[in-house]
Amino acid sequence: MSGWLYGASGRSDAEQARRAAVHQADLQEARSLVLEGQVAIYQLNFGDAARQFDAGRVVVERMQAALRETGQAERAGRLEVVLSHLRDAQRLSVSLDANARSAADQALQALASVG
Q1: Chain segment 40-74, per-residue pLDDT in tens
Q2: Which residue range forms the structural domain that includes residue 64?
Q3: How far is the CA of 42 from the CAs of 37, 48, 82, 84, 98, in angstroms?
Q4: Does the pTM exceed 0.90?
């Protein structure tokens, strides 16, 4: 019986470590996509910027769903701020508005606070 409990405990620890690694990878992917969007704006490629911000939004939504599944509602809720800024950045990019950079900066700051 103790072997079973010990084995179950090890799997739980391994699962937590896996989730943490996936979360960090998603966090870096989202950050990378937002930065790529900002570069596209500097190059006046607003269409590519909008695509990058949309891809970043998809990653953040995936992170949010994973956090909710593991009962981390407070952390998942903080990602709503990131999503709001990414939606703004995408909307502004589609409108060819360089203020999308500011919204992207705010998304990056909010993303850093979630880490």
Answers
A1: 999 999 999 999 999 999 999 999 999 999 899 99
A2: 2-114
A3: 9, 11, 21, 22, 8
A4: no
Structural domain count of the chain = 1
Kindly write down the DSSP assignment for every residue of 12-46, as one continuous string.
HHHHHHHHHHHHHHHHHHHHHHHHHHHHHHHTT-H
CATH number at residue 15: 1.20.120.660
Q: Cα angle at 53 between 108 and 39, to 5 degrees? A: 75
The residue among 114, 89, 92 whose CA lies nearest residue 103 is 89
